[in-house]
Amino acid sequence: MDLPQHVLVVPSPAQGHVKPFMKLAYNLAYHGIKVTFANSEFVEAKILGAMSEADKEQCPIRLVSYSDGLEACPAEERNGARLIASLKEVMPKNLEKLIEQINQSDNKEPITCVIGDLTVGWTLEVARKMGLKQVAVWPAGPASLALALRIPQLIETGVIDENGSTMKNELICLSEEIPVWNSWELTWISPGKPALQKILFDFSLAINQVVKNPIIVLCNTYYELDSSSCAMIPGILPIGPLPAISNLNPCSGSFLSQDSTCLSWLDKQPPNSVIYIAFGSTAMFSQKQFDELALGLELSGHSFLWVVRPNIVTGSSHEHYPDNFLEKIASRGKIVEWAPQEKVLAHSSISCFFSHCGWNSTMEGVSNGVPFLCWPYVWDQFDNKKYICEMWKVGLGLDYDEDGIISRHEIKTKIHNLVTNDGMKMNARKLMEDAKKSVSHGGGSYENFKSLVKYLGA
Ligand code: UDP
């Protein structure tokens, strides 16, 4: 007799990975698949701490955890090269042990398949070694995966060296329909951090080993959004943007508690009037840049909702706003530490999204038809900005001044240019309609998701 299928979902232990993986897991559970979700112990404590009791009660998946080997490491040092090294050396063995334990205690419904994060390809290697089915998830845009798959050829032709740096500052072009990469925009480039860059580059290179064997690669996109990159990726299955499941909180998986007071504040604002400013889970600012951003928002004269994470200013334990800033903006500005971002973007009072262009934020903005102001700072964010501004024409970038700062005047001007640009608003609405079609009955992502559910054996 065939054993029932039981899927273990394993993201990389970072906010921008855990949250979309959780959404995927919820969608699979909703379609009748038995899902267990494996976090590092550190991440699990964070997401349980941020979930409401109701969210925990309604959670349709089982949460389990395993050690990342960094118990002795202070929270603020769990990043960069140290975390990533542990990801590679300690976590694969611990994941294997976890699967063995689950299968011993749950021998009627052992894990039969691992849905693993392709950025940490060892999740899939562990599954392969243990004879389990494997499905990969690429948690960024398809262009960055197409780039990673081109690395062996770029090394062979001498365009990049074995550390991922370009030899001659060449532009990297995969096809005429895909924006080119400048040498400083490659996904793994980490200015001033050569050890981190080498690790990120090796991770990108290692992806080639995983996709060498036929494997399904799930991606949070829809085909038409970037058909050229999708066409370059063997096994790709675009399933995005995954819908929120009614009754369940689509934002489970957050590391910080969401401050929902911003939703009632938004209810009181006129339609299409509020700028939403959020830079994801890792972007940080110098105090000077933070001040210019605050003063730019003040100068703009617009209402705004600004996510200011704890420790968002480098080297400072709490935020210092410019003198009298909080008093001056009190009647038209709201600041929160962490927002229910998807609900915010879906709110009718939001006029545009001032974003760092992380892939999840990009897809959440696209799904809700909001134009973007783009402020990318690392990794694939430069690439996502090019799609937003040049390919889809739904956003504007900001220019740095000669001191390497984005000035308050630049911010004020670009906000004005964006909110008065009806063409971009129309383009953004069109993208939202396309996204909706794709996940509706008969659409590409809808059909792909159905075939995934069938493959997983519901
Ligand atoms: N997010 C959120 N509340 C916030 C800011 C961000 O829930 O106040 C979520 C956002 O909806 C997205 C994720 O955090 O799903 C950030 O992922 P993204 O890829 O955009 O950026 P990263 O954090 O990986 O840089």
From TrEMBL:
Pathway info: Secondary metabolite biosynthesis; terpenoid biosynthesis
InterPro entries: EF_Hand_1_Ca_BS, UDP_glucos_trans
Listed GO MF terms: quercetin 3-O-glucosyltransferase activity; quercetin 7-O-glucosyltransferase activity
UniProt KW keywords: Isoprene biosynthesis, Transferase
Gene3D superfamilies: Glycogen Phosphorylase B
GO BP of this protein: isoprenoid biosynthetic process
Homology family: Belongs to the UDP-glycosyltransferase family.
Protein name: EF-hand domain-containing protein
Organism: Daucus carota subsp. sativus (Carrot)
